[in-house]
What does this fold into?
Amino acid sequence: MLKALSTLARPLLLALDPEAAHEATLRALELGVYPRTGETAPCLAVRLWGLDFPNPIGIAAGFDKDARVPDAVLGLGCGFAEIGTTTPRPQPGNPAPRVFRLISDRAVINRLGFNNAGHAAALARLAARAQRGGIVGVNLGANKDSTDRVADYVAGLEAFYEVASYFTVNVSSPNTPGLRDLQAPDALDDLLARLMAARAVKTAAGLPKRPIVVKLAPDLAEETIAPVAAALLRHEVDGIAVSNTTLARPGVAGPNAAEAGGLSGRPLFHRSTVMLARVYEATGGRVPLIGIGGIDSGETALAKIEAGATLLQLYTGLIYEGPSLIGRMTGALAEACAARNVASITALTGTRAAEWAAKPLG
It folds into this structure.
């Protein structure tokens, strides 16, 4: 029944303003109105960072900015959830309208600008559900008007340390002016040195070592990939997420295509997957990667893994395909394990990385 209702709701949601549709989706999840998925195939389990992921699929940051529905996300069949991006102080983000669908392209452009209720609101919710289990990461950002953006990331790590399964450091959103400058190797050195020092204080106090993942943009210049990868390796980050939204407009058309902001969805798949493979090769496969961008089917999920991903995240694909997409993806990945005669989906990670890395970004 719930699955049928979800199918019927999708065209109604697409008829609403995008932000209104998003809020309606969150409210439904808060109320428990969503189809629940059972256990996934054992071959999809991933052991990473001392954590046991039931499967490699998660919903990307931006969906649940304020930690309202992490348990519902897990109930949909995801192997993990990630909340945020969250900033120390609440901020409204950019003026509306700021989210635009490109329905024929199965894409979205957003210029939200880290709209969120701040650390305190998200922390209260995560603390309240801390005993429920499941892997829930926290995506950290900086306030737009911050005078020390690195300090904002450190504040996030310190605030959420006891309730986060891992941290993602978002230095790649295109919608906060100057934020992507933190991807430059020198800036990354400073940011990561301070984050690692803050983590060391926590571990010295007897707390677990929380993984730190850095999320990159798909618009990095080709010549910067190697030095960025070197900086990440030098600081021994635990993972790299590739990628955020793009400022490019690869092949998109229609009345909203010229809107400012980051493009996500199907048109991002090729560019983000090529970038994923190039980061995999630049790091020698030594750092686990989270593949993001244009995942909307079992085939695209498998391609990300073959290009170098250990974990996956999606968001825009769910807008157009609905929550049943998660079950279809886990089913397709399990079938791929059987067809390739491998006991774990991780055996397929990077098997086509060289092929993908050689492709033009497009």
